[in-house]
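Reminder to self: tokens first, then the designed residues, so the page reads top to bottom the way the pipeline ran.
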């Protein structure tokens, strides 16, 4: 079995239409919606970069050009900021894509599911283990502690199997997640024996739901390519990972931190409020403002 010594590549499936945020997403990618002062995709990329990953692979679709532009050099903007001696803003703009970070883009020609989106990145990933980050899930690590993906990279290098981020979810919400079952393999670690995509509450093997962070071995590409279509007639990533359980094994890590479901309006607003309160520039003033707001029901 191949031994992986590092995770250097991350895949970002960003080809979705963002229909839950219409009309805001009619002409812009949902991943470019800002939470306080950064778009969702930037939070995910920063998380990957902070975990030691330097090659970012974006699986895009039509009308996603804004994502590519965001991580490209903006010569006119930088020239204007430099001429105006706005050095802080210039440094901020340039920090979006550090010099040692590579960005590559590949198209998903048809919307055939998350598994298919990941498969589109196969030629760029090659034989490396890799991370998958769903920008809809804004993940905040514990205050002063490692990010969720950094926790996963460290654990993957120990277990050397595909690794899923999981959280305990309410029973009535299990039909929104891939649900795992298995046995304890250490602190916050489970050796997965079964996975079910979006089960009914009565059929759920547990309440441990897969969040939007994965570290996968390259064997998953072959499994995805040869599997039948799953729930909703799509090529499900969960099915491809489930096929690895009996051969390579799969583990799940109950991460430390908090997940904001920014694919929903409620979760997006929660992330906006909570991250605004933590923001060093606007946090104190925003907190005072919230105290003055009278809520009408």
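Designed residues (297 positions):
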């Amino acid at each position: 079995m191949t031994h992986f010594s590092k995770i250097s590549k991350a895949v970002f499936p960003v080809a979705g239409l963002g229909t839950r945020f219409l009309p805001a997403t009619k002409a812009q990618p949902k991943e470019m919606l800002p939470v306080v002062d950064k778009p969702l995709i930037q939070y995910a990329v920063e998380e990957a970069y902070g975990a030691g990953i330097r090659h970012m692979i974006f699986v895009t679709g039509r009308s996603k050009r804004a994502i590519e532009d965001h991580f490209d050099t903006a010569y006119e903007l930088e020239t204007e900021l430099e001429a105006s001696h706005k050095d802080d803003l210039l440094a901020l703009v340039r920090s979006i894509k550090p010099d040692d970070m590579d960005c590559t883009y590949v198209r998903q020609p048809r919307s055939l599911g998350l598994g298919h989106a990941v498969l589109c990145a196969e030629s760029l990933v090659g034989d490396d283990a890799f991370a998958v980050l769903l920008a809809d899930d804004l993940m905040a690590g514990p205050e002063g502690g490692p990010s969720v993906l950094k926790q996963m990279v460290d654990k993957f290098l120990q277990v050397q199997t595909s690794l899923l981020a999981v959280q305990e979810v309410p029973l009535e919400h299990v039909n929104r997640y891939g649900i795992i079952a298995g046995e304890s393999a250490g602190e916050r670690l489970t050796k997965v024996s079964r996975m079910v995509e979006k089960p009914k509450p009565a059929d759920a093997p547990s309440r441990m739901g897969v969040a939007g962070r994965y570290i996968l071995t390259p064997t998953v590409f072959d499994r995805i390519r040869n599997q039948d279509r799953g729930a909703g007639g799509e090529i499900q990533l969960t099915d491809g990972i489930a096929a690895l359980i009996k051969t390579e094994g799969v583990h799940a890590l109950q991460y430390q931190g908090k997940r904001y479901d920014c694919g929903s309006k409620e979760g997006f607003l929660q992330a906006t409020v909570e991250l605004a309160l933590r923001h060093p520039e606007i946090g104190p003033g925003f907190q005072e403002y919230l105290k003055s707001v009278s809520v009408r029901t």
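The mean pLDDT is 92.
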